[in-house]
Amino acid sequence: MQNFADFLRRYSQFILFLFLLGISVFFIYKNNKYQRVLIFNAANETAGQAYSVYASAWEYLNLKKNNRLLADENAALRAQLLADKYKIYNKWMNSDTSYKQVYKYIPAQVINNSVDKANNYVTLNVGRLHGVKPDMGIISPDGVVGVVKSVSDHFSVGISLLHRKLQLSARLRGSEFFGSLQWQGTDESTLILEYIPSYAQVTPGDTIETTTYSSIFPQGIPIGRVKSFEVDADEGYFRIKVKPMAEFRKLNTVYVIDYTLKQEQTILEDEAKKGDPE
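Predicted structure:
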């Protein structure tokens, strides 16, 4: 109590000034229409700015949560694509068709990434506990990113598309011609697609996409666009330079692709190859 009394004595003049100022503003506001409008507008502007700052701060604080929700929503939408479903015919009536979802998408954030090495990798914040396994595909909203190589409980590391040992089956969109796509370890903006027959129709700007032959990606995921091409006269195939769709220096949200029938397919293929000479 003594401290409060000391405070009043020390700042009594200032408190009196504020009191008188408040009374003056009140009378000006009450008896002068023009001043009342100015004060009202100033108060509205101040309140508006305060609300704007509050809204921006709240949006920033919830940005991570909103991004996560958006990634989950995109994963669910991708899972609804008919191209990712396996057609099942009713055994009694072939006209009665249903579909089984065979590709699932696990949203993830890139927490480490390299682009300037001969063999580049990408680290994700999802792992075994999220359903991630080795040899699952990784894509961004723009296109193919790579393939999962190693997995722990909470993290996974993938071989980037910018890795000399990663080969993907790829084709020209709208064409049945497919070949082998690989990075040469030099220019991050150029992949090489080979073994496309020289009589195929190729045009700069054509989209290069995935095929189902790798049992990793669904068919039709964009990989890149044709930059230029030349014909290997001895082999009779195109050598096509491809610009990746994915922006590897800006990777953020990605999706890990779970092909749910992969084990069944692999077991059957291995069984069919038994007895073949090495």
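Summary: The chain has two domains: 2-61, 105-262.
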